[in-house]
Amino acid sequence: MPDVAYLAELLPGKKPSTFTISSFRQINGEYMDDNEFIAENIFKLFKKIDPEEYQLILPDFLFTNTIVSVKEKSDAKIKEYLTEKLLPELGISVDSHQTDTTVLTQYGDITKIQLSALEKSLIEPLQISAEQTKIKIKSISPLSWSIKSLVSLEPSISVIQIDSMLYVALHYIGVDQANQAKVDEVENIYETIKTLKGAEPSIQTIYLLSNELVEEKLKEHLSDTLPIQQLASKQNEDNKMPSYVQKTIEAGMRTLSISDYPVPQFELGKAPEGATIDVSEDEIKDESESDLPKPQKTEPIKEKRPEKPEDTSKDGEQEEIALENKETSPPTKPTRPDLTPEKTSKEYEDEDDEIEALLESLKTDGENDDGKTVETETKSQPDKNRERPMEKASPTTPEVPKKVIKNKDQTKIMLKMVFVTLAVFFATVGIGIGIGLGVLQLTQSSVPEESIPPVIETTLSPSPSPSTSPSPSPTTEVNKAELSILVVNATTKAGYAGETADKLTADKFGTVKASNAKGDYTPGTYVLLNEENQTLITVLEKTTDLKLSYRSSKETEDPKNEHDAVIVLAK
Known about the structure:
Blueprint: E1 4-12, E2 19-28, E3 32-33, E4 36-37, H1 39-48, E5 53-58, E6 63-70, H2 75-90, E7 97-107, E8 110-119, H3 124-133, E9 136-142, H4 143-146, E10 156-162, E11 165-172, E12 174-182, H5 187-199, E13 205-209, H6 212-222, E14 228-230, H7 243-257, H8 281-291, H9 345-362, H10 367-387, H11 408-446, E15 484-489, H12 496-506, E16 511-516, E17 525-528, H13 534-544, E18 549-551, E19 565-569
Parallel strand pairs: 5-9, 10-13, 13-14, 15-16, 15-19, 17-18
Antiparallel strand pairs: 1-2, 3-4, 6-8, 7-8, 10-11, 11-12, 17-19
């Protein structure tokens, strides 16, 4: 694809013509410019992969795919029409193109023919790179043709997402009307599909291989036009490869393995004699190190491992993702419970005697209820402790008494404090009442009785004092609609920048673009700004669900200073 290459090894499944991905690599880079391959970057890509045999799938816009109707029935007449009239009109010849024609249907005097062509000069960088690196290309096929095993034979439309691009094609036994658009320009897809439906009313379904955000947008604008069927399964968080990419690759291998599908398969051919691509080993090494960051070790969050895991990543290689082999963390070592004895049963009996003595001395109405409560609490606690499993103690552990009642001392101490407090309170009240009565009797005997006018107490209701509420601190608002955000992907996760950009677009940011990172970054997520703006950083973190670290320079990713902020996804 223009800015990403997928390398997958597939193994046959249990059922016929089924395949599963056993290993997968994503290699980022700029491989195309104005629909032409960049020879140096293609050579660097071929140097990074093993010299084996591969099936090559390329974007639809590199091919000529069309269905034509011919008013002829015999093979000779059809061939004559194609070679002498149709192909010259399209500027296609045997010298300039590889061609593939297949008869799809024949009704009466009308024959529908699938015409596919690939320009020879276009694939010269592939030919030269393959010869220099000893890599074999078994065949070359268009992307939309590769998913034929997923769509029905009825007229339908397919929409395939690969990284930040959407590829649309009309299916009816063959493939016709191929188009493409960027994910952030998905509105162009709406008009394309509505135009295809208007020209071909028999179209039944839209088959979709994309992320959930693209699916929601298409359903929102096209639900009244055509039903949409999502072919990709729900994304598994443990799987680093997007589910729609996985489904596309597995479907491509299945389609190519079934001979009933007339998939165009073009040969790579030989490179022009003496043609070479000169790239130094240092450039290849630098490119391999800058395309994808070296796999980093991640520390588990929920569990603590007793030993540091070994780092199995290799320097200078791209990250290889195994889809079926999942590592399981070793179980954590159980901790032994504290077996230190707290108090013996004899000590508890002494405390019980003291408490009973206090109860009898106070003689309050609630002493029976309190005693029952205490008895219930002290009996229920040992039951909880007996339910908890105990570990085997080591030989050096001191012998544990037969009857240990944990946490009982806390209840006893608390109850004792309550009783002492009540006793002191009642004693203080009694003394105060006695002193008050004595003073009253003395004053009455010494002072003659006088009529004391009643004292009218006026209770002034306090007027509420005005509370000074803190004045709101001025906040700087961010006008999302006027902002331009660039999201760049510096990880191995395909479509990561596109997914983050979709979140920003959904939150009504003005201009949002996604791309691959040009610079080298340590693992993390960053926001690049000309000047630090904490309010903008907070809004971006809330929208993207990321913890963003501020960095001042964005010249590497935004040399023309076209964007207000650049989000770097390096983790």
